[in-house]
Amino acid sequence: EAGVTQFPSHSVIEKGQTVTLRCDPISGHDNLYWYRRVMGKEIKFLLHFVKESKQDESGMPNNRFLAERTGGTYSTLKVQPAELEDSGVYFCASSQPGQGDYTFGSGTRLTVV
Amino acid sequence: SQKIEQNSEALNIQEGKTATLTCNYTNYSPAYLQWYRQDPGRGPVFLLLIRENEKEKRKERLKVTFDTTLKQSLFHITASQPADSATYLCALDYSGGSYIPTFGRGTSLIVHP
After folding, report:
1. pLDDT band at B98 (very low <50, low <70, confident <90, very high)
2. Quick one: which of B103, B111, B110 has its CA closest to B23?
3. Contact: A101, B44; criterion CB under 8 Å
């Protein structure tokens, strides 16, 4: 089966610009998660979708971040306007309810200059 | 505050030996603990999950122990190979059972031929 796909793999934008990251989970996986790893730190949870509903967005840093999952399939994470501290690797993961294993994408490396 | 600690120093071992990695946690009452492998430029890859009522779990050359009294998990790779070189991450669910993994920073393992 196809894994979790994220694109772009890399993005370099200027401070103040907008960037949209996309995640395609494994087909049929209801749970979708966004995580971020800032250099030198641990991978941190951002938010969790169950199908198209936001189940938990307690990790979202501020209102410059907007995540959507229309139709319960792929998800987008928009950063607007981007700041320097938003730089890092953004990971998406998906899982089935009740399953303890999570499949991660390769991540999007975002650099804000 | 909740904390997950993994040894930040790289573990260097000789091929064929057993590698043992440690994950300690405080202020958690996790329902489960997971171990992931991460290679450079890739997302974490799920390896094993152990639940709070399990003491030990094995999968091929991998063994995980979980001591909820000591608040510690040990991850063993027996007969290690250079291909096992990677960063290994432990993750616990949030206290309160929202079942979303919270990650440690990971420990780098280097297996020398």
Report:
1. low
2. B103
3. no
